Amino acid sequence: MYTFSSKLKTFSFILIVxxxxxxxxxxxxTPSSIEEVEKMLAESHHDGHGEASKDAxxxxxxxxxxxxxxxxxxxxxxxxxxHVFHQLQNKPWSAFYVACIFFFLLTVGVLAFYAIQIASQAxxxxxxxxxxxxxxxxxxxxSIIFFILLLLSGFHLNHLFVWMDPEVVKxxxxxxxxxxxxxxxxxxxxxxxxxxxxxxxxxxxRKFTLAQDEANDDSNYKKLFKASAAFLxxxxxxxxxxxxxxxxxxxxxxxxxxxxxxxxxSFFVSGITVITxxxxxxxxxxxxxxxxxxHIQDLAKFMFAFSIFWTYLWFSQxxxxxxxxxxxEVTYFVTRIEQxxxxxxxxxxxxxxxxxxxxxxxxxKRLTWIVIGAGAxxxxxxxxxxxxxxxxxTVGDQWYLGASEIGSVxxxxxxxxxxxxxxxxxxxxxxxxxxxxxxSKHFHY
Length: 445
Fold this sequence. Notes:
Elements: H1 6-28, H2 34-49, H3 54-69, H4 71-119, H5 129-136, H6 139-154, H7 166-170, H8 173-176, H9 184-214, H10 219-246, H11 259-284, H12 293-324, H13 327-339, H14 341-358, H15 368-394, H16 403-423, H17 437-441
């Protein structure tokens, strides 16, 4: 039986407190009026010019006086300031949303991996089931926070989804054509349905596995098998629509037919990475004795394989859109390359180049410190992936990694650690009567 160490528990509380401070500071430091933004832009403009000659100042003043008389220029300036104001107000919300959805979907990825192992009757992985169940314990609190965030968006307390703004829709023919699907009531109903379905499967899967430990037959396993097969059918459909709703719709003018798979690959490999890292942590504490280097190597193989799969989807989506050069489509990547150059190409290096160099070697997959290091890089890389998918549409070029971003990651990381490791204390780390447990314990190659 695992015992949640006081040091790790204290560490998780520290992360949560630091996260709350960072999130709070991010909201407090957000400009509260258009006048503040105008002042900030003026100071930024002045600092950007530095020391200028008197002639340049005179020329600038003459142009400024001319622009003041120009009604059109004045209207454009006012519109720009209002746009920046909304972007800066969106920044703490966006940072919170990125971290929230990243940890939430990471957990969904673990749940899907768990269901796949059961439905496929895999013989190598049952010794890892309790670790997966511990991680998926975060699904319920993560779901609650995420759904509340969607509700706040629906009630117009933030502007993460531009299509929720009636004034925008009124003047946008393209969004008007999508209102049958992109409307707040239907959006929230879909979210409740998907989140409810995932949590329902997790609840019954945990119930059946615990009951199987004490049973005299395999009836609970058979129920778990059927539930897992049904869940995977539901998951395939719900995951695609979820990716359109929660991520792609922040850019309502753009769409990609590969997007559902692309998002899946990102959070799925993140989930497998977390399974691997927590397993190695528990082994370092003298637990999970039945887990051997062959199990770790297989987990690392999945980390490697789905990093390649993610890259294939990234390249397929990027290359086809870039080569076709259709204005409505290519704008998505132009914005990210011009305004998010470092995170956009940086995540490609972190999610593809680094894993393929490190995890291609079979021997490296058995070395704990290499797998943990590769896992940390992969998780950071896929957080950047979600950052780049969401931030350009919500904050534009007004982005930077500040208190909101760091605080949000710390808060959800602390909450994740607290929930997961508390759940691991609730049951033995190895299931007792799972039909394929003998094969899993003797898994070697």
